[in-house]
Design a protein that fits this description.
By secondary structure, the chain is an alpha+beta fold. The protein folds into three domains: 97 residues, no CATH class; 63 residues, Type Iii Antifreeze Protein Isoform Hplc 12; 58 residues, SH3 type barrels (Roll). It has one helix and 14 strands. The strands form four sheets. Strands 1, 2, 3, 4 and 5 form a five-stranded antiparallel beta sheet that branches. A five-stranded mixed β-barrel has the order 9-10-12-13-14. A two-stranded antiparallel ribbon has the order 6-7. Strand 12 and strand 13 form a beta hairpin. The protein starts with a helix and ends with a strand.
């Protein structure tokens, strides 16, 4: 009977340790993660996973830490170690969601479409759901061409765009070559279409084929 009572007492103490430590740990970990994020680009939500204390020795004081290379962005994890009363460490899953402004499609947009101001709007999105390169300034997207279809409300990334076409295939263009103290301009015919900043091959009136870089003004710049 005495042994059974001691067993019940041990179980009760273990449950009490687990319950109190778990509550303290989740709150402390959430505050720790929020502090480590620093100055985020928008509002932050942190979800902390459950740590099973039943398999851990009783601990008087725990301390959170960031594992080497950990990034508090999206699904990640942080460490927890006992620094008083026992010696153990473990990892806890954490989900960090950061919301901020980003440029999104104001309506469904098709591949090959040159973006206009009415195609764009700023909206709050979950930044942690997307790879780097989300745009926030409409000027960075206007008159650029979509490389893929976008649904209404879908964030616009740099990788979705190319520069607007400034040279059409077969068009007559001016080639410009500059050197120390001189500039030479000749005419030629573009052998392909090109956006600003892209290379383009041009055939001169003499039949020579040169490669240059298309500029915003439609001139092809030959670089030495």
């Amino acid at each position: 009977m005495k042994a059974y009572a001691l067993l019940l007492l041990g179980a009760a103490l273990g449950a009490a340790w687990s319950s109190s430590a778990l509550a303290l740990d989740e709150a402390a970990l959430r505050r720790y993660v929020e502090a480590q994020i620093g100055d985020p680009p928008g509002r932050v939500e942190v979800d902390v996973g459950t740590l099973d204390f039943q398999r851990r020795a009783a601990c008087a004081r725990m301390e959170p830490f960031l594992p080497p290379g950990a990034r508090l962005w999206g699904r990640t994890s942080i460490g927890v170690r006992c620094v008083e009363g026992a010696s153990w460490s473990t990892y806890v899953p954490v989900v960090v969601r950061i919301y901020g402004p980003a440029l999104v499609a104001a309506r469904g947009l098709g591949a090959g479409q040159a973006l206009q101001p009415e195609d764009l709007k700023l909206d709050e999105v979950e930044l942690t759901r997307y790879p780097p390169g989300l745009l926030t300034d409409p000027a960075d997207a206007e008159n650029r061409v979509l490389l893929r279809t976008l649904n209404a409300g879908e964030p616009i990334r740099v990788a979705h765009l190319r520069g607007r076409q400034v040279i059409a295939s077969g068009a007559l263009v001016k080639l410009s070559y500059s050197g120390p103290g001189f500039t030479v301009s000749v005419e030629g015919r573009a052998l392909s279409a090109a956006s600003a900043g892209q290379p383009v091959r041009v055939q001169t009136t003499s039949g020579k084929i040169l490669t240059g870089i298309a500029r915003e003004d439609g001139v092809v710049e030959i670089r030495s």
